[in-house]
Amino acid sequence: xxxxxxxxxxxxxxxxxxxxxxxxxxxxxxxxxxxxxxxxxxxxxxxxxxxxxxxxxxxxxxxxxxxxxxxxxxxxxxxxxxxxxxxxxxxxxxxxxxxxxxxxxxxxxxxxxxxxxxxxxxxxxxxxxxxxxxxxxxxxxxxxxxxxxxxxxxxxxxxxxxxxxxxxxxxxxxxxxxxxxxxxxxxxxxxxxxxxxxxxxxxxxxxxxxxxxxxxxxxxxxxxxxxxxxxxxxxxxxxxxxxxxxxxxxxxxxxxxxxxxxxxxxxxxxxxxxxxxxxxxxxxxxxxxxxxxxxxxxxxxxxxxxxxxxxxxxxxxxxxxxxxxxxxxxxxxxxxxxxxxxxxxxxxxxxxxxxxxxxxxxxxxxxxxxxxxxxxxxxxxxxxxxxxxxxxxxxxxxxxxxxxxxxxxxxxxxx
Length: 415
Ligand code: ASP
Ligand code: MG
Hints:
The protein is 35% helix and 26% strand. It contains 14 helices and 20 strands. Strand 7 and strand 8 form a beta hairpin. Bound molecules: aspartic acid and magnesium ion.
């Protein structure tokens, strides 16, 4: 007997019929001898509808009251799912975040879970009940309702799995797993059976469409095996449920003798680049420029500074496209006052990254990447590397070509 935490997203509980299907699936797991705790989202579209109602009243709602309103969507689904289970003869009990002991900090709209006091869940489980917990919500030390940020039910599920020491956390969604890259860009993208936490975090720009990245950080911290799978497909087996298993490197190695060199290709269309040419090459320059950017809460992604010549140097960095104008407005006067020769920017760049823990023990990945891009005459504007990732910045118009070329070059199509 295993203890499984399952999470069903908004689409999976998007109608009464779908809720009934979820109930059947949950019951199948308990009939197979497992204990099940379920975390659910609001029915699809509901959270947006609630946010819309608040917006119709005020453009600046009290954060406490907004959490009061948006947390109600999940309360509806837990009750309905519990009833649906009763209807098919499965004992079940719904719990709101606070009833389930989900303690958070006091930051409304993006609260962090601090502890789960799981006595009530444990008692219900030992009485043979399926426990259904409202995702996305918790309670702070003042006793006020908090929410965990959009997509937060994933984090609820992982936190429950960690606190209950569950064998696995299953995230049911409308896709059947995590892919080697976005199938809309490369139709030959392949579903991965396994990926490590670390890789999944690096694939964030792709993975974020599938699950809340914070939940992956949480799962990694507490080593909770996390499985993404489709709620639209039949259960294939209780021992090998399919989908994509996101797990620690140790478990990965146990399950998969041969590690692929490259697991996937991530890309990010939301980048913009700023270049300052001919700044004086002296201590404090990077701090002067980037310190101010950071102070304005703008996140800088890649940074490159060239070797100086003639007592000057060139400096390039990337930010989110939404922050481009704001960053320019900060940096331009700074560059001028430092006597920089020129400042320029480009809002039509993208970042493409190869991700894989296999590259730790293997040389030549970067050069294979550069050669594949060169063969297609794709110009590389910036390069950065980490232990398990190589990223390049290229012109946006080459994104699709670059992703497909790399997908083929690293043989990601075949098992
Ligand atoms: N209902 C919340 C949202 O739409 C939380 C979730 O679905 O995970 O963001
Ligand atoms: Mg979601």
